[in-house]
Amino acid sequence: MGSTPLGYTSCEDCRGRGKKDDGTPCPRCEGTGMVAAREWHRPENQEEKWTTGKRRFPRYLTNLPLTVTFRGRDLEGYCNQIAEGGLGALLPEPFPVGKVVLLQFAVPTHPTGLRVQAVVRYEIGFQHGLEFVSLNEGERLAIRQFCSELPSVSRR
Length: 156
Hints:
Number of domains: 2
Largest sheet: 6 strands, antiparallel, barrel
CATH class of the largest domain: Mainly Beta
Strand order of the largest sheet: 3-4-5-8-7-6
Helix content: 10-25%
CATH architecture of the largest domain: Beta Barrel
Shape: globular
Strand content: 35-45%
Radius of gyration: 16 Å
Number of helices: 2
CATH topology of the largest domain: Thrombin, subunit H
Structural class: mainly beta
Low-confidence stretches: 38-53
């Protein structure tokens, strides 16, 4: 999917292939071929993190079906917030913070379904924050256009 996302490096165990020599998924990178260059940890007071500082992109309310692929498993959920830089999703089970997952979803402003990699930035129960790490300009534009038609999330 292009270059390695910022903050990630190729997995040394599988040499960035995502698979061991026998073809099974690499356990260290969980088949992505990438590992975090440094660990990201959720602050103890997540609410404070959410309400201080400015976000890079405004959030918008939506209700999109979403498939998340992690460790070779597909899980269905839905996106309840979206922005140019990522999305918020309700998923049927918690995903580990810092892991790279594959997201598949459709927006009406893009001719085909989107398949993008994202990093799990936080999880609180079944609510997850996912930051896009592999958007191309066409996908980013389609998300920006889709967001322009949605109600914004008001900050507290």
